[in-house]
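User: I'm curious whether this sequence folds into something compact or stays loose and floppy. Could you predict its structure so I can see for myself?
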Amino acid sequence: MSSLVSGQVVAEHASRDSCWIIVHNKVYDVTDFLDEHPGGSKIILRYAGKDATEAYEPIHPPDAIQNNLPIEKHIGSVDPNTVAKVVKQATEEDKRRQALMDARPPLDEILNLHDFEAVAKAVLPAKAWAYYSSASDDEITIRENRAAFQRIWFRPRVLRDVTSVDWSMTILGCKSSLPIYISATALGKLGHPDGELNLTRAAAKHGVIQMIPTLASCSFDEIVDAAQPGQPLFLQLYVNRDREITKKYVQHAEKRGVKALFITVDAPQLGRREKDMRMKFVDDGAGAKVQEGQKDVKKDQGVARAISSFIDPSLSWKDIPWFRSITNMHIILKGVATPEDAILAYEAGCQGIVLSNHGGRQLDTSRSGVENLIDIVAALKTKGPWPNPNFSIFVDGGVRRASDVLKAIALGASAVGVGRGFLYAFSSYGQEGVERAIQILRDEFEMNMRLLGARTISEVVPEMVDASALRSHAGLTPPDNLYNTIYQPLGLASFKTKL
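Assistant: Here's the prediction. I'll summarize afterward.
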């Protein structure tokens, strides 16, 4: 429509038979989409004939509605002067959280990444904390990701001139001020109104590489537009069942200057994240299909499953040549866990792998990335000289200290991904929180490298660590008091309160 749609007209379409909603000042007819909505129909009908932006924005990428609705269902722009402003009443919980925000520790009292996590746990809405912090099943792997680093011990060298130490490096041809990159985490606006832009702006100021998530709350172009000229960016990709959508997305990213494509390969179906599921982020009555061909699967299983039904479970090794044909970006497989698959990735012509278990959110009791690192490096050494300048091994999961990064690098990692640490930093303090987190890691790198006797990252070698206890999964790990203080144990089903 060329003319503006009045709010009164939109309000006339407030039923299951004719359901219009407003999102970002645009009017959409979602009548035919009600039963296909991953979160179920009831949550949409709650906003029928109204402005749904506030509910939509935190848990949807900005272009989700445009991409999922046929163009003929895009009614037009709403006349903002005719839309009744909904005044949100602050609940007691909102007031409690605001009081906690006002009482946050000043940033100069935040001394480590655990501090950010503790503040985020206190100030985030319960559903946001559940989504960010949850892991699959019994949450054994998420705890093991952290514990594994404590089973690796340093063997420092002494009497080396460490007046000057340099922890900068090159990651996939891109300069980085730290031997880490910001790993992709979804739905940043659940934690802060600016979402992933906090990461982009902080990364630009401090020379750190950001990986853009497919399921960001900010649009891909919004993130790239916020970057500085020449700022290196990577892209994390969930592969869509519609390969044309994937192709268009990948090639657009390459045109916008993204340097590397990290294809997530460990999520043909998302794990059961029970903290998230218990929060009922999506509607109880939702009944859309989780994946193509499956029936009678409810969507009352948390926000993670509600937003991920497009992911293709048929993705396989036969698709790698196709990806190589549609892009010249570096192709990295994110989620490799075995030497066998590492070799296949190498032979398929990929430029690297990420040893990752999705932050403990997929197959529970999977080994940590850093434990898998030893076997995978050994396997890749059989394929030629090592380190191989044409094939990188990255590790993520459980990283909270610069010492964790140095342990992984000593065991053969090219660089390390940090996800939740930066997520909690901006959820707690916005962009300034991310900058403080980077500074904390920088200070830790300086101290640890001096004490380790390494002047550059290339001097962090296997002989500097003792990983002999890494495979001992019970009884040999020193208690991590900071982590254990923050970690929220799983709960059980609750009885209804008697009236």
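Summary: Residues 283-299 have pLDDT under 50 and may be disordered. The two ends are 52 Å apart (CA to CA).
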